[in-house]
Structures are given as structure tokens and as C-alpha cells.
Amino acid sequence: MVYNKASEEKKWKKWKQKEEQILKENGMTDDKILELRRYDWRDFNAERRFKKWQLTNYNFINQVPFTELKLPIRDMSDVIDQIEDENLYQVMIKAHIQDLVILYLKMYGYKNKEIASIMNISESIVRKRLSNIRKKLK
Question: Is 126 exposed, middle or buried (0-12, 13-18, 19+ CB in 10 A)?
Fold first, then answer.
């Protein structure tokens, strides 16, 4: 399942308009309503960022048998925990799970096209993620 920001934002705006109408009817000042809107918008964006990364196909490892991928790990945290170089560890601990999975599959010899197919993303995204990882490591 992929997170649809536009759809969720539309729902949020509709909900917010109804809420603001009720607040106005009950005598809340415009300043307080604006303050509440800003707070709710920050909250919406924080939740959006969380859901964007959580509601994706990145947990494909649980869907594809390990024998097919030949991955001798339970999850990506096992890979990160084995890194001994402190600088590399600091980069990888902050990396997105998709970056880690792409990098891991690349290290196992998968080609960009194969990685894209496994992860259900485009090959250009795979290339871009690998490029970003290289930049961070320099």
C-alpha cells in the first residue's frame, strides 16, 4: 500500500473546514483558530512523513521467501549492527530502510533492474538511491 499525500491532504482540509466552522459557531476567535490550524498542519505533516515511509512496499523481505533472496539476516537492523566503521555506521543508521535494502541487494550482486522489480519501484529510483548513498559516504 502506498501513501497518497494528495488524497490525505484533501481529507485533512475537508475535516479542518468543518472543525473551524464549529469553532466559529462556538465563539472562538480567528487568531486562536489560525493558531490551531498551524498546529494541526504541523501535526498532519509529521504524520504524513511517518506514513509515507511506513506504508510502502519496503517490507518485501517478509513477503519473499529468504531462500529466494538468499539473505542471511532477519532484518536490516542486523546488517547495521554488524558495521564496525563508526563513520559508515553513522551514515547507515540515519539511512532510510529502502536505501539499506537497495544497498544490501546490490552487495549481493543484484542488478538495478532486478532490485527495482523485487521492490516494486522504478529502476531510476534505484539508481538515484544508490547515487545518494555514494554521496553520503564521500
Answer: buried
Co-location of 64 and 45 in the same domain:
no
| Domain of 45, in residue numbers | 5-54
Predicted model pTM: 0.44
* Domains of the chain: total: 2
- CA-nearest of 62, 76, 125, 129 to 99 is 129
pLDDT digits (tens, 9 = 90+) for 119-134: 888 899 999 988 888 8
Question: CA-CA distance, 121 to 129, in Å (whole number)?
Answer: 11
**Residue-wise pLDDT tens digits, 96-109:** 878 888 887 887 78
